[in-house]
Design brief:
The chain has nine helices and nine strands. With 254 residues, it is α/β, with parallel strands linked by helices. Helix 9 links the parallel strand 8 and strand 9. Residues 1-27 form the signal peptide. This is Acid phosphatase.
Length: 254
């Protein structure tokens, strides 16, 4: 996941989980024109935020900080998706030579929900950097369990994230502290110097960067069985037997 999104625009994807309340029709209430107007308008941003919080089973701790619930629809959906991914990986073991899994970081390997809600779902790169420096984000438990199981069964682990290369060392330290095994490779979006395998250099969009990096990983002899991410742009471009889309109604990254 990249850190370049708008605090309002990023919530648009949340409408998919049931945000149906429209705002401010100018036509007379009860008229056909009013009904048509409401049907065309986007969901009210306040209602969308409430729907997102409900999806995550939002609750506040004693310090007033937001958290997601392990019994939430989000947690259940994530467990189901990861369980399907594990079954597929099990089927491929012994069939695929040098199997590998590729994981995005934000809202894939780690969950940023509490931090997002604490910041009213707005993005501030300075605050994001502070969160990374402080190890604020928490491990995505089903993904963590899948990853450890995979590595124990001879599958190579690669992290592939939109976080920039300067955020790499602390990000890897946090992932290790959360219980993730040491990866065979970790790739952060180039900010200073681009590798030769990315012809788009420092101007790559997400799909170019991630698919190009997966192609590079496979060129080393690994075969990516699972490519796990929370955005469709994490998954597009091929170079994986099975793309795995995790739920994330908080934002959309092209």
């Amino acid at each position: 996941m990249s850190g370049k999104w708008s605090g309002l625009v990023k919530l648009a994807a949340a409408a998919a989980i049931g945000a149906t309340v429209a705002s401010g029709a100018t036509a007379l209430a009860g008229s056909d024109d009013a009904t048509a107007a409401r049907a065309k308008e986007p969901a009210n941003i306040g209602q969308v935020k409430n729907d997102v919080k409900a999806y995550y089973g939002d609750y506040l701790d004693a310090a007033g900080k937001h958290h997601y619930s392990d019994t939430s629809r989000f947690a259940k959906d994530t467990k189901n998706v990861v369980a399907d991914a594990k079954r597929y990986l099990q089927q491929q073991l012994g069939r695929v030579k040098n199997p590998a899994i590729v994981l995005d970081v934000d809202d894939t390997s780690e969950i940023t929900y509490g931090w997002e809600a604490d910041n009213d779902f707005g993005f501030d790169p300075v605050k994001q950097q502070q969160a990374i420096d402080n190890g604020t984000f928490t491990a995505n438990k089903p993904v963590l369990e899948l990853t450890n199981w995979a590595v124990q069964h001879g599958v190579k682990l690669y992290f592939l994230t939109g976080r920039n290369e300067l955020q790499g060392p602390q990000s890897l330290k946090n992932l290790a502290n959360e219980g993730y095994p040491a990866p065979a490779g970790a790739f952060f979006k180039p900010k200073v110097t681009a590798p030769d395998y990315l012809p788009c250099g420092l101007t790559c969009n997400t799909v170019q960067y991630k698919s190009g990096t997966r192609a590079h990983i496979e060129a080393t002899g690994a075969k990516i069985v699972l490519n796990v991410g929370d955005q469709f742009s994490d998954l597009e471009g091929g170079y994986a037997l099975r793309p795995i889309k995790l739920p994330n109604p908080m934002y959309y990254l092209p």
